[in-house]
Known about the structure:
Helix content is 50%, strand content 8%. The protein is an alpha+beta fold. The protein folds into two domains: 3-276, Orthogonal Bundle (2-methylcitrate dehydratase PrpD), CATH 1.10.4100.10; 284-414, CATH 3.30.1330.120. The longest helix is centred in the first third of the chain and has 22 residues, at 133-154. GO terms for molecular function: lyase activity. InterPro entries: MmgE/PrpD_sf (IPR036148), MmgE/PrpD_sf_1 (IPR042183), MmgE/PrpD_sf_2 (IPR042188), MmgE_PrpD (IPR005656), MmgE_PrpD_C (IPR045337), MmgE_PrpD_N (IPR045336).
Amino acid sequence: xxxxxxxxxxxxxxxxxxxxxxxxxxxxxxxxxxxxxxxxxxxxxxxxxxxxxxxxxxxxxxxxxxxxxxxxxxxxxxxxxxxxxxxxxxxxxxxxxxxxxxxxxxxxxxxxxxxxxxxxxxxxxxxxxxxxxxxxxxxxxxxxxxxxxxxxxxxxxxxxxxxxxxxxxxxxxxxxxxxxxxxxxxxxxxxxxxxxxxxxxxxxxxxxxxxxxxxxxxxxxxxxxxxxxxxxxxxxxxxxxxxxxxxxxxxxxxxxxxxxxxxxxxxxxxxxxxxxxxxxxxxxxxxxxxxxxxxxxxxxxxxxxxxxxxxxxxxxxxxxxxxxxxxxxxxxxxxxxxxxxxxxxxxxxxxxxxxxxxxxxxxxxxxxxxxxxxxxxxxxxxxxxxxxxxxxxxxxxxxxxxxxxxxxxxxxxxxxxxxxxxxxxxxxxxxxxxxxxxxxxxxxxxxxxxxxxxxxxxxxxxxxxxxxxxxxxx
Length: 474
Protein backbone atom coordinates (compact mmCIF):
# COMPACT_ATOMS: atom_id res chain seq x y z
CA UNK A 1 0.00 0.00 0.00
CA UNK A 2 1.55 3.33 -1.08
CA UNK A 3 1.46 6.51 0.99
CA UNK A 4 -1.54 8.02 -0.83
CA UNK A 5 -3.59 4.82 -0.55
CA UNK A 6 -2.67 4.48 3.11
CA UNK A 7 -3.70 8.07 3.80
CA UNK A 8 -7.06 7.58 2.07
CA UNK A 9 -7.72 4.38 4.01
CA UNK A 10 -6.91 6.12 7.28
CA UNK A 11 -9.22 9.00 6.43
CA UNK A 12 -12.05 6.55 5.77
CA UNK A 13 -11.42 4.63 9.01
CA UNK A 14 -11.53 7.85 11.01
CA UNK A 15 -15.04 8.69 9.85
CA UNK A 16 -18.29 7.44 11.39
CA UNK A 17 -19.74 4.33 9.69
CA UNK A 18 -22.61 6.18 8.01
CA UNK A 19 -23.45 3.54 5.39
CA UNK A 20 -23.56 0.66 7.85
CA UNK A 21 -25.44 2.68 10.47
CA UNK A 22 -28.19 3.74 8.08
CA UNK A 23 -28.54 0.21 6.69
CA UNK A 24 -28.89 -1.23 10.17
CA UNK A 25 -31.47 1.40 11.14
CA UNK A 26 -33.55 0.71 8.04
CA UNK A 27 -33.71 -3.03 8.72
CA UNK A 28 -34.76 -2.51 12.34
CA UNK A 29 -37.57 -0.03 11.68
CA UNK A 30 -41.04 -1.44 12.32
CA UNK A 31 -44.48 -0.05 11.55
CA UNK A 32 -45.19 0.02 15.28
CA UNK A 33 -42.29 2.49 15.69
CA UNK A 34 -44.05 5.09 13.55
CA UNK A 35 -46.42 7.49 15.35
CA UNK A 36 -49.96 7.98 14.08
CA UNK A 37 -49.35 11.49 12.78
CA UNK A 38 -46.39 10.26 10.71
CA UNK A 39 -48.54 7.46 9.28
CA UNK A 40 -51.23 9.98 8.31
CA UNK A 41 -48.65 12.27 6.70
CA UNK A 42 -47.26 9.36 4.71
CA UNK A 43 -50.71 8.38 3.45
CA UNK A 44 -51.21 11.95 2.28
CA UNK A 45 -47.83 11.82 0.52
CA UNK A 46 -48.90 8.73 -1.44
CA UNK A 47 -52.22 10.34 -2.40
CA UNK A 48 -50.55 13.60 -3.41
CA UNK A 49 -47.93 11.83 -5.50
CA UNK A 50 -50.53 9.73 -7.29
CA UNK A 51 -52.48 12.92 -8.06
CA UNK A 52 -49.55 14.68 -9.72
CA UNK A 53 -48.46 11.47 -11.50
CA UNK A 54 -51.88 11.12 -13.10
CA UNK A 55 -51.78 14.80 -14.06
CA UNK A 56 -48.34 14.40 -15.60
CA UNK A 57 -48.89 11.12 -17.43
CA UNK A 58 -50.23 12.84 -20.52
CA UNK A 59 -47.48 15.44 -20.77
CA UNK A 60 -44.97 15.31 -23.62
CA UNK A 61 -41.99 14.35 -21.47
CA UNK A 62 -43.87 11.42 -19.93
CA UNK A 63 -45.28 10.14 -23.22
CA UNK A 64 -41.92 10.44 -25.01
CA UNK A 65 -40.25 8.51 -22.20
CA UNK A 66 -42.85 5.76 -22.57
CA UNK A 67 -42.27 5.60 -26.32
CA UNK A 68 -38.55 5.24 -25.73
CA UNK A 69 -38.58 2.67 -22.94
CA UNK A 70 -41.69 0.49 -22.75
CA UNK A 71 -40.41 -2.56 -24.56
CA UNK A 72 -40.29 -5.22 -21.86
CA UNK A 73 -43.33 -7.01 -20.40
CA UNK A 74 -43.81 -7.08 -16.67
CA UNK A 75 -46.28 -6.77 -13.80
CA UNK A 76 -45.80 -3.10 -12.86
CA UNK A 77 -48.39 -0.60 -14.07
CA UNK A 78 -47.40 2.59 -15.87
CA UNK A 79 -49.76 5.05 -14.19
CA UNK A 80 -52.21 6.80 -16.49
CA UNK A 81 -52.06 3.99 -19.05
CA UNK A 82 -52.94 0.33 -19.36
CA UNK A 83 -49.29 -0.58 -19.97
CA UNK A 84 -47.41 -2.96 -17.72
CA UNK A 85 -43.66 -3.36 -17.72
CA UNK A 86 -40.75 -4.20 -15.42
CA UNK A 87 -40.54 -2.59 -11.99
CA UNK A 88 -37.46 -0.54 -12.86
CA UNK A 89 -39.02 0.83 -16.06
CA UNK A 90 -42.36 1.57 -14.39
CA UNK A 91 -40.57 3.30 -11.54
CA UNK A 92 -38.68 5.48 -14.01
CA UNK A 93 -41.70 6.35 -16.15
CA UNK A 94 -43.94 7.08 -13.18
CA UNK A 95 -41.19 9.17 -11.59
CA UNK A 96 -40.96 11.28 -14.74
CA UNK A 97 -44.73 11.76 -14.79
CA UNK A 98 -44.80 12.63 -11.08
CA UNK A 99 -42.28 15.44 -11.47
CA UNK A 100 -43.11 16.83 -14.90
CA UNK A 101 -45.46 19.52 -13.52
CA UNK A 102 -43.23 20.34 -10.53
CA UNK A 103 -46.37 19.91 -8.44
CA UNK A 104 -44.96 17.15 -6.20
CA UNK A 105 -44.08 17.50 -2.53
CA UNK A 106 -40.78 18.54 -1.01
CA UNK A 107 -38.76 18.18 2.17
CA UNK A 108 -36.79 21.08 3.60
CA UNK A 109 -34.03 18.87 5.00
CA UNK A 110 -33.56 16.96 1.75
CA UNK A 111 -33.82 20.20 -0.23
CA UNK A 112 -35.76 18.41 -2.95
CA UNK A 113 -38.71 16.24 -3.87
CA UNK A 114 -38.63 12.92 -1.96
CA UNK A 115 -41.94 11.30 -2.89
CA UNK A 116 -41.46 11.56 -6.63
CA UNK A 117 -38.62 9.03 -6.34
CA UNK A 118 -39.88 6.83 -3.52
CA UNK A 119 -43.57 6.41 -4.35
CA UNK A 120 -43.03 5.28 -7.99
CA UNK A 121 -40.33 2.85 -6.83
CA UNK A 122 -42.47 1.40 -4.06
CA UNK A 123 -45.63 1.04 -6.14
CA UNK A 124 -43.71 -0.60 -8.98
CA UNK A 125 -42.26 -3.14 -6.57
CA UNK A 126 -45.61 -3.64 -4.84
CA UNK A 127 -47.11 -4.59 -8.21
CA UNK A 128 -44.66 -7.51 -8.39
CA UNK A 129 -45.27 -8.99 -5.00
CA UNK A 130 -47.73 -9.31 -2.14
CA UNK A 131 -47.19 -6.43 0.30
CA UNK A 132 -49.44 -4.69 2.79
CA UNK A 133 -50.21 -1.03 3.32
CA UNK A 134 -48.23 -1.12 6.56
CA UNK A 135 -45.18 -2.43 4.72
CA UNK A 136 -45.52 0.30 2.08
CA UNK A 137 -45.74 3.04 4.71
CA UNK A 138 -42.82 1.66 6.71
CA UNK A 139 -40.64 1.52 3.61
CA UNK A 140 -41.49 5.11 2.70
CA UNK A 141 -40.70 6.36 6.20
CA UNK A 142 -37.36 4.52 6.14
CA UNK A 143 -36.42 6.00 2.80
CA UNK A 144 -37.33 9.52 3.80
CA UNK A 145 -35.20 9.27 6.92
CA UNK A 146 -32.13 8.06 5.02
CA UNK A 147 -32.34 10.61 2.21
CA UNK A 148 -32.90 13.51 4.58
CA UNK A 149 -30.18 12.54 7.03
CA UNK A 150 -27.55 12.28 4.28
CA UNK A 151 -28.71 15.69 3.06
CA UNK A 152 -28.45 17.17 6.53
CA UNK A 153 -24.89 15.92 6.92
CA UNK A 154 -23.83 17.43 3.60
CA UNK A 155 -25.50 20.80 4.32
CA UNK A 156 -26.93 23.27 1.83
CA UNK A 157 -23.58 23.45 0.03
CA UNK A 158 -24.30 20.35 -2.07
CA UNK A 159 -27.40 22.04 -3.45
CA UNK A 160 -25.63 25.39 -3.86
CA UNK A 161 -22.95 23.70 -5.96
CA UNK A 162 -25.59 22.87 -8.57
CA UNK A 163 -26.61 19.30 -7.76
CA UNK A 164 -30.29 18.44 -8.07
CA UNK A 165 -31.05 16.82 -4.74
CA UNK A 166 -34.23 15.16 -5.97
CA UNK A 167 -31.95 12.89 -7.95
CA UNK A 168 -28.92 12.68 -5.66
CA UNK A 169 -30.40 12.35 -2.16
CA UNK A 170 -33.58 11.02 -3.78
CA UNK A 171 -31.65 8.02 -5.08
CA UNK A 172 -30.62 7.09 -1.53
CA UNK A 173 -34.19 7.60 -0.27
CA UNK A 174 -35.65 5.40 -3.01
CA UNK A 175 -32.97 2.77 -2.44
CA UNK A 176 -33.54 2.55 1.31
CA UNK A 177 -37.31 2.42 0.76
CA UNK A 178 -36.99 -0.29 -1.89
CA UNK A 179 -34.58 -2.30 0.25
CA UNK A 180 -37.02 -2.16 3.15
CA UNK A 181 -39.96 -3.26 1.03
CA UNK A 182 -37.97 -6.15 -0.47
CA UNK A 183 -36.95 -7.31 3.02
CA UNK A 184 -33.19 -6.96 2.56
CA UNK A 185 -31.06 -7.69 5.62
CA UNK A 186 -28.54 -5.20 7.03
CA UNK A 187 -25.62 -6.26 4.83
CA UNK A 188 -27.75 -6.32 1.69
CA UNK A 189 -29.16 -2.91 2.54
CA UNK A 190 -25.64 -1.59 3.08
CA UNK A 191 -24.68 -2.96 -0.32
CA UNK A 192 -27.78 -1.38 -1.88
CA UNK A 193 -26.83 2.03 -0.46
CA UNK A 194 -23.29 1.51 -1.73
CA UNK A 195 -24.58 0.71 -5.21
CA UNK A 196 -26.80 3.78 -5.04
CA UNK A 197 -23.75 5.93 -4.28
CA UNK A 198 -22.45 5.08 -7.75
CA UNK A 199 -25.78 5.99 -9.37
CA UNK A 200 -26.84 9.24 -7.75
CA UNK A 201 -26.62 12.27 -10.03
CA UNK A 202 -28.64 15.18 -11.38
CA UNK A 203 -27.64 18.74 -12.30
CA UNK A 204 -29.57 21.96 -11.86
CA UNK A 205 -28.40 23.25 -15.23
CA UNK A 206 -31.20 21.14 -16.70
CA UNK A 207 -33.94 22.98 -14.79
CA UNK A 208 -36.53 24.37 -17.15
CA UNK A 209 -36.15 21.46 -19.59
CA UNK A 210 -37.82 18.06 -19.94
CA UNK A 211 -34.69 16.46 -18.46
CA UNK A 212 -35.55 17.79 -15.00
CA UNK A 213 -38.37 15.23 -14.48
CA UNK A 214 -36.02 12.57 -15.84
CA UNK A 215 -33.96 13.18 -12.69
CA UNK A 216 -36.90 12.05 -10.56
CA UNK A 217 -37.44 9.03 -12.78
CA UNK A 218 -33.80 8.11 -12.39
CA UNK A 219 -34.02 8.35 -8.59
CA UNK A 220 -36.96 5.94 -8.61
CA UNK A 221 -35.32 3.56 -11.08
CA UNK A 222 -32.00 3.73 -9.22
CA UNK A 223 -33.74 2.74 -6.01
CA UNK A 224 -35.33 -0.33 -7.57
CA UNK A 225 -32.14 -1.35 -9.35
CA UNK A 226 -29.82 -0.87 -6.37
CA UNK A 227 -32.08 -2.88 -4.06
CA UNK A 228 -32.61 -5.68 -6.58
CA UNK A 229 -28.91 -5.86 -7.40
CA UNK A 230 -28.04 -6.13 -3.73
CA UNK A 231 -30.68 -8.81 -3.26
CA UNK A 232 -29.07 -10.72 -6.15
CA UNK A 233 -25.68 -10.63 -4.44
CA UNK A 234 -23.96 -7.59 -5.97
CA UNK A 235 -21.78 -6.09 -3.26
CA UNK A 236 -20.42 -2.58 -2.73
CA UNK A 237 -17.98 -0.76 -0.52
CA UNK A 238 -19.18 -0.77 3.10
CA UNK A 239 -18.15 2.90 3.28
CA UNK A 240 -19.48 4.05 -0.09
CA UNK A 241 -21.26 7.05 1.40
CA UNK A 242 -18.67 8.33 3.89
CA UNK A 243 -15.40 6.96 2.48
CA UNK A 244 -12.47 9.06 1.29
CA UNK A 245 -13.56 8.43 -2.29
CA UNK A 246 -17.22 8.05 -1.41
CA UNK A 247 -20.34 10.02 -2.21
CA UNK A 248 -20.11 12.65 0.53
CA UNK A 249 -16.48 13.45 -0.19
CA UNK A 250 -16.90 13.68 -3.95
CA UNK A 251 -20.29 15.42 -4.06
CA UNK A 252 -19.83 17.66 -1.04
CA UNK A 253 -17.53 20.11 0.68
CA UNK A 254 -15.45 18.58 3.49
CA UNK A 255 -15.16 21.96 5.18
CA UNK A 256 -18.88 21.88 6.03
CA UNK A 257 -19.83 18.18 6.02
CA UNK A 258 -20.71 16.73 9.42
CA UNK A 259 -20.71 12.96 9.03
CA UNK A 260 -22.26 12.45 12.46
CA UNK A 261 -25.35 14.41 11.39
CA UNK A 262 -26.31 11.50 9.13
CA UNK A 263 -26.64 9.30 12.23
CA UNK A 264 -28.32 11.60 14.77
CA UNK A 265 -31.96 11.91 15.79
CA UNK A 266 -33.24 9.07 13.63
CA UNK A 267 -37.01 9.27 13.86
CA UNK A 268 -36.85 12.07 16.40
CA UNK A 269 -38.91 13.46 14.83
CA UNK A 270 -39.48 11.46 11.67
CA UNK A 271 -38.56 13.39 8.55
CA UNK A 272 -41.96 12.68 7.00
CA UNK A 273 -43.28 15.33 9.38
CA UNK A 274 -41.28 17.89 7.39
CA UNK A 275 -43.00 17.16 4.08
CA UNK A 276 -44.16 20.26 2.21
CA UNK A 277 -47.14 19.94 -0.15
CA UNK A 278 -47.61 22.35 -3.05
CA UNK A 279 -50.93 23.98 -3.85
CA UNK A 280 -49.51 25.66 -6.96
CA UNK A 281 -47.57 23.81 -9.74
CA UNK A 282 -44.44 25.95 -9.60
CA UNK A 283 -40.99 26.00 -8.04
CA UNK A 284 -41.48 26.06 -4.26
CA UNK A 285 -39.25 29.08 -3.82
CA UNK A 286 -41.87 31.45 -5.23
CA UNK A 287 -44.73 30.02 -3.16
CA UNK A 288 -44.48 32.44 -0.20
CA UNK A 289 -44.85 35.39 -2.59
CA UNK A 290 -47.84 33.76 -4.30
CA UNK A 291 -49.52 33.17 -0.94
CA UNK A 292 -49.08 36.85 -0.01
CA UNK A 293 -50.42 38.15 -3.31
CA UNK A 294 -53.34 35.73 -3.63
CA UNK A 295 -54.42 36.46 -0.05
CA UNK A 296 -54.13 40.21 -0.67
CA UNK A 297 -56.35 39.93 -3.75
CA UNK A 298 -58.92 37.75 -1.99
CA UNK A 299 -59.07 40.11 1.00
CA UNK A 300 -59.50 43.13 -1.31
CA UNK A 301 -56.28 44.65 0.03
CA UNK A 302 -54.93 44.51 -3.52
CA UNK A 303 -56.51 45.32 -6.86
CA UNK A 304 -54.57 44.59 -10.03
CA UNK A 305 -55.81 47.80 -11.63
CA UNK A 306 -54.25 49.85 -8.80
CA UNK A 307 -50.82 48.17 -8.81
CA UNK A 308 -47.84 49.92 -10.39
CA UNK A 309 -45.02 47.65 -9.29
CA UNK A 310 -44.22 44.52 -7.30
CA UNK A 311 -40.81 43.90 -5.74
CA UNK A 312 -40.03 40.53 -4.14
CA UNK A 313 -36.95 40.24 -1.95
CA UNK A 314 -35.77 36.65 -1.75
CA UNK A 315 -32.58 34.62 -1.44
CA UNK A 316 -29.64 34.44 -3.81
CA UNK A 317 -30.39 30.74 -4.21
CA UNK A 318 -33.98 31.37 -5.25
CA UNK A 319 -32.89 33.49 -8.18
CA UNK A 320 -30.12 31.04 -9.06
CA UNK A 321 -32.82 28.39 -9.49
CA UNK A 322 -35.62 30.60 -10.84
CA UNK A 323 -33.33 31.91 -13.52
CA UNK A 324 -35.69 32.53 -16.43
CA UNK A 325 -36.58 36.20 -16.32
CA UNK A 326 -38.40 36.00 -19.66
CA UNK A 327 -39.26 32.32 -20.20
CA UNK A 328 -39.37 30.95 -23.71
CA UNK A 329 -41.14 27.68 -22.91
CA UNK A 330 -43.82 26.53 -20.50
CA UNK A 331 -41.20 24.43 -18.71
CA UNK A 332 -39.00 27.49 -18.18
CA UNK A 333 -42.06 29.37 -16.93
CA UNK A 334 -42.17 27.26 -13.77
CA UNK A 335 -38.73 28.67 -12.99
CA UNK A 336 -39.58 32.25 -13.85
CA UNK A 337 -40.30 34.28 -10.72
CA UNK A 338 -41.81 37.13 -12.74
CA UNK A 339 -44.12 34.86 -14.73
CA UNK A 340 -45.46 33.02 -11.67
CA UNK A 341 -46.12 36.29 -9.83
CA UNK A 342 -47.77 37.84 -12.89
CA UNK A 343 -50.14 34.89 -13.28
CA UNK A 344 -51.10 35.08 -9.60
CA UNK A 345 -51.80 38.80 -9.90
CA UNK A 346 -53.88 38.40 -13.06
CA UNK A 347 -55.96 35.41 -11.91
CA UNK A 348 -55.73 35.28 -8.14
CA UNK A 349 -54.60 31.68 -8.62
CA UNK A 350 -51.99 29.59 -10.43
CA UNK A 351 -53.03 26.30 -12.04
CA UNK A 352 -51.77 23.63 -14.41
CA UNK A 353 -53.52 25.45 -17.27
CA UNK A 354 -51.10 28.37 -16.85
CA UNK A 355 -48.16 26.28 -18.04
CA UNK A 356 -48.90 25.59 -21.66
CA UNK A 357 -47.35 27.15 -24.75
CA UNK A 358 -50.51 29.19 -25.36
CA UNK A 359 -50.73 30.44 -21.76
CA UNK A 360 -47.13 31.58 -21.92
CA UNK A 361 -47.98 33.91 -24.82
CA UNK A 362 -50.85 35.61 -23.00
CA UNK A 363 -50.30 39.36 -23.58
CA UNK A 364 -51.93 40.40 -20.28
CA UNK A 365 -49.56 38.20 -18.29
CA UNK A 366 -46.56 39.41 -20.27
CA UNK A 367 -47.51 43.03 -19.58
CA UNK A 368 -47.81 42.41 -15.83
CA UNK A 369 -44.39 40.74 -15.84
CA UNK A 370 -42.84 44.09 -16.78
CA UNK A 371 -43.85 45.49 -13.38
CA UNK A 372 -42.51 42.54 -11.35
CA UNK A 373 -38.97 42.75 -9.95
CA UNK A 374 -37.52 39.86 -7.94
CA UNK A 375 -34.27 40.75 -6.21
CA UNK A 376 -31.80 39.28 -3.75
CA UNK A 377 -32.53 40.56 -0.25
CA UNK A 378 -29.32 41.70 1.50
CA UNK A 379 -30.04 39.45 4.49
CA UNK A 380 -30.11 36.37 2.23
CA UNK A 381 -27.42 37.27 -0.28
CA UNK A 382 -24.76 34.67 0.60
CA UNK A 383 -24.70 31.02 1.74
CA UNK A 384 -23.42 32.15 5.14
CA UNK A 385 -26.44 34.41 5.63
CA UNK A 386 -29.08 32.26 3.96
CA UNK A 387 -28.41 28.70 5.10
CA UNK A 388 -28.88 29.31 8.86
CA UNK A 389 -32.19 31.01 8.13
CA UNK A 390 -33.26 28.20 5.83
CA UNK A 391 -32.36 25.46 8.31
CA UNK A 392 -34.25 27.28 11.07
CA UNK A 393 -37.33 27.69 8.88
CA UNK A 394 -36.86 31.46 8.89
CA UNK A 395 -35.86 32.11 5.28
CA UNK A 396 -38.29 34.68 3.97
CA UNK A 397 -39.75 36.53 1.04
CA UNK A 398 -40.42 40.25 1.37
CA UNK A 399 -43.17 41.53 -0.92
CA UNK A 400 -43.60 45.25 -1.65
CA UNK A 401 -46.56 46.26 -3.83
CA UNK A 402 -46.76 49.92 -4.83
CA UNK A 403 -50.23 51.28 -5.57
CA UNK A 404 -51.12 54.12 -7.92
CA UNK A 405 -52.00 56.40 -5.01
CA UNK A 406 -48.47 56.00 -3.63
CA UNK A 407 -49.42 53.67 -0.77
CA UNK A 408 -47.38 50.55 -0.11
CA UNK A 409 -48.61 47.04 0.62
CA UNK A 410 -45.75 45.29 2.42
CA UNK A 411 -45.56 41.74 3.76
CA UNK A 412 -42.83 39.36 4.84
CA UNK A 413 -43.54 35.63 4.79
CA UNK A 414 -41.60 32.49 5.64
CA UNK A 415 -42.75 29.13 4.33
CA UNK A 416 -46.05 28.72 2.51
CA UNK A 417 -49.46 27.11 2.79
CA UNK A 418 -48.82 23.37 2.55
CA UNK A 419 -45.40 23.50 4.20
CA UNK A 420 -44.79 21.45 7.32
CA UNK A 421 -45.33 24.54 9.48
CA UNK A 422 -48.70 25.20 7.80
CA UNK A 423 -49.78 21.69 6.70
CA UNK A 424 -52.67 20.88 4.42
CA UNK A 425 -55.62 18.71 5.37
CA UNK A 426 -57.18 15.82 3.49
CA UNK A 427 -59.72 18.36 2.21
CA UNK A 428 -56.93 20.40 0.57
CA UNK A 429 -55.48 17.25 -0.95
CA UNK A 430 -58.87 16.15 -2.21
CA UNK A 431 -59.30 19.46 -4.07
CA UNK A 432 -55.82 19.09 -5.55
CA UNK A 433 -56.50 15.46 -6.49
CA UNK A 434 -59.74 16.33 -8.24
CA UNK A 435 -58.08 19.20 -10.12
CA UNK A 436 -55.25 16.88 -11.23
CA UNK A 437 -57.62 14.12 -12.35
CA UNK A 438 -60.44 16.21 -13.78
CA UNK A 439 -62.30 14.16 -16.41
CA UNK A 440 -60.29 10.97 -15.84
CA UNK A 441 -62.71 9.01 -13.62
CA UNK A 442 -66.39 8.89 -12.81
CA UNK A 443 -67.30 10.14 -9.36
CA UNK A 444 -67.66 6.66 -7.82
CA UNK A 445 -64.18 5.55 -8.86
CA UNK A 446 -62.69 8.91 -7.96
CA UNK A 447 -64.11 8.58 -4.45
CA UNK A 448 -62.90 4.97 -4.22
CA UNK A 449 -59.32 5.97 -5.03
CA UNK A 450 -59.29 8.61 -2.30
CA UNK A 451 -60.80 6.19 0.20
CA UNK A 452 -58.14 3.58 -0.48
CA UNK A 453 -55.35 6.06 0.18
CA UNK A 454 -57.04 7.30 3.33
CA UNK A 455 -57.12 3.70 4.59
CA UNK A 456 -53.79 2.63 3.14
CA UNK A 457 -52.51 1.35 6.48
CA UNK A 458 -55.49 -1.02 6.74
CA UNK A 459 -55.05 -2.70 3.36
CA UNK A 460 -53.68 -6.24 3.49
CA UNK A 461 -52.54 -6.13 -0.12
CA UNK A 462 -51.59 -3.05 -2.10
CA UNK A 463 -50.40 -2.28 -5.59
CA UNK A 464 -51.03 0.39 -8.17
CA UNK A 465 -54.10 -1.33 -9.71
CA UNK A 466 -55.72 -1.73 -6.28
CA UNK A 467 -55.04 1.89 -5.30
CA UNK A 468 -56.41 3.10 -8.64
CA UNK A 469 -59.57 1.04 -8.20
CA UNK A 470 -58.73 -1.27 -11.10
CA UNK A 471 -58.76 -4.37 -8.90
CA UNK A 472 -60.93 -5.38 -6.00
CA UNK A 473 -59.54 -5.87 -2.50
CA UNK A 474 -58.96 -9.47 -1.52
